[in-house]
Amino acid sequence: MVHFGHANSLRQAKALGDKVIVGIHTDEEITKHKGPPVFTEEERVKMVKGIKWVDEVVLGAPYVTTLEVLDQNDCDFCVHGNDITMTAEGVDTYHLVKSANRYREVMRTAGVSTTDLVGRMLLLTRNHFRQGSAEYDIEKEAKLLKIQQLQSRLGSSNMGQDSAAKSPWTGCSQFLPTTQKIIQFSDGKSPNQGDKIVYVAGAFDLFHVGHLDFLEKASKLGDYLIVGLHTDPVVNSYKGSNYPIMNLHERVLSVLACKFVNEVVIGAPYCVTEELLDHFKIDIVCHGRTPIALEDGKLDPYAVPKTRAIFELLDSGNDMTTERIVERIILHRLEYERRNQAKEKKEIEAFEALQRQKQTHKAG
Fold first, then answer.
1. How confident is the model at residue 357 (pLDDT cuts 50, 70, 90)?
2. Which string of DSSP letters, residue by residue, matches 248-263?
3. pTM
């Protein structure tokens, strides 16, 4: 997958130099070493190109990064997070560039991983929601029985829901947002005098190529694009089940990482109001071709912009939806479960070996 954790690594990488080139592994390489990818290589290339800190993308990067690859792309060094990535044979994928002192490390974003997101989809959990007095609580105990029953039927592990029994890098499902993180992701620029301001709103859950294509088209209708993000309870009211898969704070960072987006309204009202339009001086309001749910089954959320004749339906030309991504996961459930279990086993073994090396070094 491509999520805000990856975007945060790329943001940190950009701060280490002047140009960021991202190597993308093929579907074949990922399947061999990690298990089936959620997004195809074409989708992943497009998604990574859409991240604001990326300058260039190269498809077909080898799973073990070599010095030849760095030289071919005129790179001074390679950057990765401070988690261990290994081949199917258990080899550190960055051992060559580390030995040559052409490796730099950035902090992995705690609380998010593909493993965890896949787990949320498979187990239909809601403990990632942020609402009411329990906004920052995991509420694991309240959901434990239901999850155990699901696991019994699915034959699965906790899939990233229990940090105590998981990999030190992919186990925790609690993401704690900070204003600093939002500032780091935001470009901090206000619209210029006379700029045409475009507004779109939605869930933008599991940010994907459909969202990316829609936002690119919306951005071309004006000079400054504002995205309104609905709260978790609001999204759940019109999507149902355990949607959104990603909570509001996670979705904020996912959208802010997109190079077509200038600003995000956190917890935007479902109905676009006169006050919102006037406050942000919005010239155009857009919505995609997905169905528009009426508020309380009665109110058109776009009634006000329609009355002002500033509403426009936009066809992104892409039929990808969050639901289709979840369908992919469900369809390949057993493969993903095997992938996650094998990946976490390797990571735990690597972590324990690293700890033993540190202890030996101290003793020596």
1. confident
2. HHHHHHHHHTBTT--E
3. 0.80
